[in-house]
Amino acid sequence: MDFQLIYILSGLFVGFIVGLTGVGGGSLMTPILLHFGVVPTSAVGTDLLYAAITKSGGIYVHSKKRNIDWRLTGELALGSLPAALVTLWVLHNAGFDTAAVNRFIKVMLGYALVFTSLAILFKKQLLNYSHRNDIWITRLSRNHQAIATVATGVLLGVLVTITSIGAGALGTVALFLLYPLLPTVKLVGTEIAHAVPLTLIAGLGHASVGNVDWLLLTNLLMGSLPGIYIGSHLANSVADHYLRPALAAILLLVGAKLVF
Question: Side-chain half-sphere of 180: how many Cα atoms within 13 Å?
Fold first, then answer.
């Protein structure tokens, strides 16, 4: 098997950042793969399976600590999984030109990175605002919350399938706004539990049409799994208020470059 050090180191770097901050998986990995010349469709497909595998351990940990609201996970999945399947069908069966699809993915990826960077940068302010103020979104009935959660899942399903990013930062911010009284750790655990099946389904869909580079995926995982382990153990000793703005700035610059 042809192991390529640059991809192993990339996986190590991204895994370390994810373990350290909890965000940045797809947001960093897909632009890195594009920089190395991987075509957008293959970069997205490979990154989706990469995310599903690397985050799967998080389900076990959060479930063991009772940090997952399975009802919310189910409502998100009720919207996101069908949306992912429909998006995959449209991308691969609507007769689009491959070059046009790749250009579309790059632009959508750019916008997703910009929104993700803003979500990372202002997540704490949004959370505090939703706790302090009686805005309409915090006064929704349980039935309306369920509908809004399924709708959020639909949006995430489309975005994640096209760009491979958004399930983490954007999904968590949406849950923060819809359920401001739930503990933060439970919202994070719930979003991880939802992200794994979503990225797995979307990734397998891309794999079915040849959009996954299995050797590349193996190289990335060789680096990311130890990277996440190391980053997770150092998370409490590194100042988060320095890391998150730096990560957001990088994503904003990369996203703006892809869009413009």
Answer: 19
